[in-house]
Amino acid sequence: MRRPVARNLTVLAVSAAVVVSVGAAAPPPAAQSPGGGKTPMAVGYGGAVSSVDPDASAAGIEVLRKGGNAVDAAVATAAALGVTEPYSAGIGGGGYFVYYDAKSRTVRTIDGRETAPLTADENLFVENGKPLAFADAVSSGLSVGTPGTPATWRTALDRWGSKRLSSVLKPAERIARDGFTVDETFRSQTASNEARFRYFPDTAQLFLPGGRLPVVGSTFKNPDLARTYAELGRKGVDTLYHGRLGRDVVDTVNKPPVDPGSGWNARPGDLSAKDLAAYRTKVQAPTRTSYRGLGVYSMAPSSSGGTTVAEALNILERTDLSKASKARYLHRFIEASRIAFADRGRWVGDPAFEDVPTKELLSQRFADARECLIKDDAVLTSPVPPGDPRHPERCGTGGTAAPTTYEGDSTTHLTVADKWGNVVAYTLTIEQTGGSGITVPGRGFILNNELTDFSFTPANPAVHDPNLPGPGKRPRSSISPTIVLDRHDKPVVALGSPGGATIITTVLQTLTGFVDRGLPLADAIAAPRASQRNAAQTELEPGLYDSAVRKQLEAIGHSFKVNPEIGAATGVQRLPGGKWLAAAESVRRGGGSAMVVRPVR
Fold first, then answer.
1. What pLDDT does residue 398 have?
2. Is 208 a member of any domain?
3. Over the range 62-78, which residues count as b (16 or more CB within 10 Å of their CB) and which as e?
4. Is 497 known as a binding-site position?
5. Is residue 471 part of a domain?
6. Rounded to two decimals, what is the model's pTM?
7. Using CA atoms in the order 289, 312, 582, 28, what is the torsion angle rounded to 10 degrees?
8. CA atoms within 13 A on the CB side of 37
9. Is 412 helix (H, G, I), strand (E, B) or coil?
10. 500 labeled part of a ligand binding site
11. Is residue 278 part of a domain?
12. Is 476 known to sit in a ligand binding site?
């Protein structure tokens, strides 16, 4: 049982409800972002959708208007993102799906993470006794895991949806066939991948039309993906896991179609029809922790998101962040993140292969033992050694420190609510921006490089690394789709973000900004971010790096470096009287797109 904090939890729950009502008084719903026509906030009735893209959000709204529920709309939005955000998500990848059921007032989750081939072992990325360079691994068949996104859609619709897959894929199929307008983000992401896209003729033909970068303002069409979606609608996702589409994926992974003139060594993978047929999503209990009297629910391992966000919140529970100065708030946030990442690296992996102490990582007892490491006038030295959640000792550590391994920062997140009160927070990914860079010929989508989320070799040779590759193993993720409930188990807010390992710190900072600092949801999302992942330096966006608070924090020992952009969050918030507020980025990734079924001023 968590011991109460200084303030009364009943009052805190009421305060949270007050914060919800205050959110409606944030910037006007029609405020436009500088990204060009996107609306980062909307308020209204009938349900809400928030994503990074207006075509994708509109696809979800279309399904809600036709009587679909939040699950139906989430799949429709995700499918549309596979068209308009093909370098971040698609049916060649995977993700994590968190669902709140209004009728039972319960939260359920789907682990749709990609899996390694059944032939994989811990030397998957070792060549001639040495780990491959990341650049050599990422654009190769070796990096491709068995896709989990189509199976996630099937599981969600079968269990909680009200529409057929063929129905909810229609908006995305239409966008792929008729095209969408290229924006600066799409062009710049293409440009940053241009060199490796040219290694693969099918990728270059699709994403470099006429051999050139797509022009901002032009219409981009993907008829191959439109046909693939139509096939998924007719045949179901078994066409991937047991059929023709799956054979095309296997052939592409095992013999990547490389331009012979490029000189690129696209190392072949070892994916088989058996791997596809054996793939299963995992419907599992969420992580849960209590914070300021609210229930915070997220993804359990194989994602480290739920446990790491929860541990950091539990550490922060003992500090009244609402009254702290900005410098003290950020100091405590940074140090809690540092400690939680230390424990994440030591203990979290795929629980089918590793003994992950999930319950203990979520315990307040363990958080209290770790919280005492934080001093207001000094900074912990990174990498911080992990603690032992099974046998917590006050200010104790349970092993040798290890650095946080690299995790690709491209992903996308969507958040949906419907008129019945159901909510979905869904983060999906193909890992790196542009994934493996390998397009399945004639199919219109890029394959993931999720297996590079494994440790290539032990992060610290002195201790067991729970994130080494293995047969059928899921690589550790930082994805953190989160739903927060009040003391009556009704939604307060739901949110998530892309950003690799920065997902965890983005969700944590947005939650504490909203719950503790009293920021309206749109402002909590827009606030400049910091990200500490058990490293020597903390990353700051320019809004913090160029501020006076940086010097205050440096005075007690913090060291910083600039990160131009951290994450790209979206969220929805329940308002009184059946209204919803949808919020997205105002600037990051060119701004996001928040929509509601029936807008109100």
1. 63
2. yes
3. bbbeeebbbbbbbbbbb
4. no
5. yes
6. 0.93
7. 130
8. 8
9. strand
10. yes
11. yes
12. no
Name residue 550's amino acid: R
Closest to 425 in 3D by CA, of 479, 477, 478, 483: 483
Tokens 């827009």 sit on residue = 526
Look at the chain and count its residues: 601
Q: Which residue has the tokens 């739903």?
A: 483
Q: Say if residue 453 carries a ligand binding annotation.
A: yes
- Domain membership of residue 33 as a residue range: 9-283+406-599
* CA within 13 Å, CB half, 82: 37
Total number of domains in the chain: 1
Please count the other Cβ atoms lying within 10 Å of the Cβ belonging to residue 248: 17
The token pair that represents 441 in the structure block: 């010929």
Residue 368 lies in a domain: no
CATH number, domain of 565, equals 3.60.20.40
The model's pLDDT over 500-520, given as tens digits with 9 standing for 90+, comes to 999 999 999 999 999 999 999
> Strands 491-496 and 180-181, how do they pair?
unpaired
pLDDT in tens, 269-309: 999 999 999 999 999 999 999 999 999 999 999 999 999 99
Per-residue pLDDT tens over the stretch 304-345: 999 999 999 999 999 999 999 999 999 999 999 999 999 999
- Residues labelled catalytic: 411
Rounded to an integer, what distance in angstroms lies between the CA atom of residue 378 and that of residue 359?
30
| Cα 291 to Cα 288, 317, 319, 401, distances in angstroms | 10, 7, 11, 28
CA separation for the pair 512, 509 (Å, rounded)? 5
Residue 586 labeled ligand binder: no
Query: pLDDT digits over 125-173, tens only?
Result: 999 999 999 999 999 999 999 999 999 999 999 999 999 999 999 999 9
Question: Which residues, including other chains, have CB under 8 Å from residue 135's CB and lie 6 or more apart?
Answer: none
Residue with the two structure tokens 């909203």? 514
Instruction: Evaluate if residue 23 carries a pLDDT over 80.
Output: no
Q: pLDDT tens digits for 455-483?
A: 999 877 888 899 999 999 999 999 999 99
